[in-house]
Amino acid sequence: MTVPTPTPPKPIWFDTTLRDGALMPGVSFSIHEKVRIASLLDAIGVDAIEVGYPGRYPHDREAIAAVAGEVERAAVCALAGDDRAQIEAVAEAIAPAKRGRIHTYTNVNLPDRRRERATLDAIERSISLARHYCSDIQWSAFDATRADPDFLDRAISVAIAAGAKTVNLPDSLGIATPEAFRQFLAAIAPRHGPNPGAIFSVHCHDDLGHATDNAIVALEMGARQLECAIEGLGARKGNTDLRELVYRVRDRFPEAIDLNLDLLEQTCEFVRAIVRRTPSRPRS
Fold first, then answer.
1. How crowded is the C-beta side of 149, counted as CA atoms within 13 Å?
2. For residues 24 and 36, what is the distance between their CA atoms, to the nearest angstrom?
3. Which residue range or ranges hold the Pyruvate carboxyltransferase domain (predicted)?
4. Closest CA relative to residue 74, chosen from 106, 103, 40
5. Which of 68, 106, 198, 242 satisfies CB 3.0 to 4.6 Å to 97 for a cystine?
């Protein structure tokens, strides 16, 4: 993570409406709707679109492949745990994409320190495996804000050395206040210097209503990628709202926004209409 700068570079916009957003109760998208939403996000200028979690939800494989065949510019991304079967499921699903990304994650909030070595080995092994299939690898330190700081630092270093191009530091349970999140990120920055070898990302949940504020803090502290969802959809109380964050960033740093805002408004309305009219459909 870089040292804070008064005027941050343009954010990298990562949208997870179609993966994490679909975890919100009462929200479900058909494959046709996922393709349409992904195409709109691509046209808006979003940089990465996370479509599903095929290792856990086999039905996501078809949707990911369908999106991968349509998106022209953005990276098409899917989530995997750190085991071989889940990583290979993502690799297969994103194969049609012009630009694909494998997103792996590892729980770094360990109740037993005796598991640290095995966890670091799993991070190295899973990222190395993912790189056999794709050059663009993102790794998430699940529950990073509650992890032991020294172990988190070691895990980040292992992930970068293994080839992760993006390191995501999620507030997985949405428990961080903006000041606590600032302190958390400030402790990471000096450990990895101005050129850490990877882009740092944040994924903020809104359980306490701080998701957008925490994302702004992260941008100020040097994070480059901001993970969001349309309408703030997501597990429990949801994620950082894409539209809200875009306008908050534009108000503070106008030169940092290079998105089609008119199309963003249309896309938000399209998703709102789906959510209003569509009963929950069980995932398979």
1. 10
2. 19
3. 11-265
4. 40
5. 68
* Structural domain includes residue 231: yes
The total number of structural domains in the chain stands at: 1
Q: Could you list the pLDDT tens digit for every one of the 284 residues in the chain?
A: 555 556 678 999 999 999 999 999 889 999 999 999 999 999 999 999 999 999 999 999 999 999 999 999 999 999 999 999 999 999 999 999 999 999 999 999 999 989 999 999 999 999 999 999 999 999 999 999 999 999 999 999 999 999 999 999 999 999 999 999 999 999 987 777 667 889 999 999 999 999 999 999 999 999 999 999 999 999 999 999 999 999 999 999 988 899 999 999 999 999 999 998 766 544 44
1 within domain boundaries: no
CATH number where 164 lies? 3.20.20.70
DSSP state of 147: S
The structure tokens 């109380």 sit at 237
Contacting residues for 32 by C-beta, under 8 A, at least 6 apart: none
Q: Which two tokens stand for residue 193?
A: 């210097």
CA-based nearest residue to 15, from 202, 271, 229: 229
Strand partners, 76: 49, 100
* 283 in a structural domain: no
Q: How far apart are CA 224 and CA 56, in angstroms?
A: 28
- For residue 194, the 8-state DSSP code is S
Whether 227 is covered by a domain: the verdict is: yes
The CA dihedral of 78, 239, 124, 67, to the nearest 10 degrees, is: 10
- What's the whole-model pTM score? 0.94
HSE-up of 129 (CA within 13 Å, CB side)? 20
